[in-house]
Design goal:
Blueprint lengths: L16 E3 L3 E2 L2 H11 L4 H4 L1 H6 L9 H15 L6 E12 L8 E13 L5 E12 L4 E12 L4
Antiparallel strand pairs: 1-4, 2-4, 3-6, 4-5, 5-6
Length: 152
């Protein structure tokens, strides 16, 4: 979608599916996330450990994968001014490992909306799924947000 177009409460149509541009995951991403969060479990930092644990090699942190959902949603560009808060995530599932070299995109489905008790705002739910090039779902979750009505 055009980065100038926003999806306001009035424009939020349940069933709409949006897709982000792809993003390549790198070793640097994993190292940066580990440095930022302090989470340096060897499955993320040591190829030999990860392989002994049954993985192909180092895997990205699950919460990094979930954070990519938000980052790729920002790349779509339709909620930059219309979403003002996150109320939480429900039904988060980590379904497959994410490796350096994987290319992923976001499939964002608009699920539901309702008016808020506060004028000019609503509560909406979107389902984000991080998907690899081959169609494998990495992480999914339902995100509840506060969405503004279109400014007058």
């Amino acid at each position: 979608m055009d980065s100038g177009k926003q999806i306001w409460l009035e424009d939020f149509v349940p069933g709409t599916v949006l897709t982000s541009p792809p993003r390549l995951v790198t070793i640097e991403d994993i190292d940066t996330w580990a440095a930022l969060t302090g989470e340096r479990h060897p499955v993320h930092m040591d190829d030999a450990f990860a392989q002994a644990a049954g993985f192909r090699g180092r895997v990205a942190h699950g919460l990094f994968s979930l954070a990519l959902v938000e980052g790729l949603k920002a790349e779509i560009g339709v909620f930059e001014r219309s979403v003002i808060a996150s109320l939480g995530w429900n039904n988060v599932k980590f379904s497959a490992p994410l490796y350096p070299g994987d290319k992923v995109h976001l499939r964002l489905t608009l699920v539901s909306k309702r008016a808020s008790s506060k004028l000019g705002k609503g509560i909406a739910e979107e389902r984000g799924v991080l998907v690899k090039e081959d169609g494998t779902e990495v992480v999914s979750g339902d995100h509840v947000i506060i969405l503004l009505s279109r400014p007058e």
